Amino acid sequence: MNIFKPKLYIALLLFIGVICVGVFGYMYFSDDTFINALYMTIITITTVGFGEVHPLSQSERLFTIFLILMSVLTLGYAASVITQYIASGEFLKNIKTKKVQKTIDKLSGHTIVCGYGRNGKQATVKLIKYKKPFVIIENNEERILEIEEQNLLYIKGDATIDDFLVKAAIDKASSLITALPSDANNLYVVLSARQLNKELTIVSRASNDSSDAKLRIAGANNVIMPDKLGGEHMASLLVTPDIVEFVDKLAADSENATHLEEIVVDNLPKEFLLKSIRDLDLRKKTGCSVIGFKTPDHEYVINPDAETKLVIDSKLIVLGSAKQIQKLNKLF
User: Fold this and answer.
1) SS3 sequence, the chain?
2) pTM surpassing 0.90?
3) What's the CATH fold of domain 4-87?
């Protein structure tokens, strides 16, 4: 669209210019009123064949010939620009972009994923699995083609520019993942996102240890270093292989895998508030086990006591098979 915009504007200005020349020309040569001059100009440009206001003099006829030639050239140029615009696919692409933008504008509580590289792609797979709405901001043409094949919502642009974050409805988003390859760009995104939405949960990718503290100061809630995690994982496979395989099984996506699930206490039925974990009786009702508890002060309790109170702003972490988790979700 950026290529054709100037051409379309030029065609529009030329068309308006022809009308202005025609009006002033007829007012000058025929001493007509503005309305009569405008009428003569329009029927001449559009070649509709309506009768003249009055018989034309020789000078008026010469001016009319000149006006016809000008209008033919101008309309020909406009027609060629519009034809090129439609034939190039920009027209349909522009309509699709507007349609996607309308869909994004309706989102609320969604996640914004900045960058569709290896880490960004893995993040979207997880979000799709948990049916979480998200919008991708990506500028790479090859990755955009891949995103379109997956039929995912996206905005083509640079995530470090505030305008594209605004287009992704950051004011209504609940979280943001920035997985750009450059730590500097991730830092810029975190700074901008935190300014645009104070309540946003931000997770950032980092390559260097020195970037961790900077990203957290800028406003990131969590910082992930994929290379560091990969190295630690490989070493753990040698030191504690059984534990690692067990944890990997928890993260597996197969139907028979064991899963971890998070329960927000605020979303439980009111009769369970201020009751104990024992009162929930999850083991009997669903088969799931409570293995963790997050307090309102964001402290984690491993293997919490059965008498732990279910207070507001706290969370339960439960362990169970896929079928057990399904029962849990239906129950609560």
Assistant:
1) CCCHHHHHHHHHHHHHHHHHHHHHHHHHHHCCCHHHHHHHHHHHHHCCCCCCCCCCCHHHHHHHHHHHHHHHHHHHHHHHHHHHHHHCCHHHHHHHHHHHHHHHHCCCCCEEEECCCHHHHHHHHHHHHCCCCEEEEECCHHHHHHHHHCCCCEEECCCCCHHHHHHCCHHHCCEEEECCCCHHHHHHHHHHHHHHCCCCEEEEECCCHHHHHHHHHHCCCEEECHHHHHHHHHHHHHHCHHHHHHHHHHHCCCCCCEEEEEEEHHHCCHHHCCCEHHHHCHHHHCCCEEEEEECCCCCEEECCCCCCECCCCCEEEEEEEHHHHHHHHHHC
2) no
3) Helix Hairpins (1.10.287)
- CATH code of 241-331, in short, is 3.30.70.1450
Contact of 123 with 113, CB cutoff 8 Å: yes
Cα radius of gyration rounded to whole Å, the chain: 32
User: Could you tell me the residue ranges of all domains in the chain?
Assistant: 4-87, 107-230, 241-331
CA dihedral sign, ordered 19, 21, 23, 29: negative
The mean predicted confidence, pLDDT, of the chain is: 86
The Cα–Cα gap between 188 and 227 comes to 21
Residue 236 pLDDT > 60: yes
> Cα separation of 275 and 121, whole Å?
41
CA distance 296 to 304: 15
C-alpha separations of 140 from 93, 156, 169, 237 in Å? 16, 8, 21, 35
CATH class of 107-230: alpha beta
Average pLDDT over residues 8-26: 88
Give the tens place of pLDDT for each residue, 32-41.
889 888 888 8
Q: Do 107-230 and 241-331 agree at the fold level?
A: no
CA distance 153 to 168: 10
Helix axes 58-87, 34-46, angle to 10 degrees: 60
Rounded (5°) CA angle 310-315-318: 100
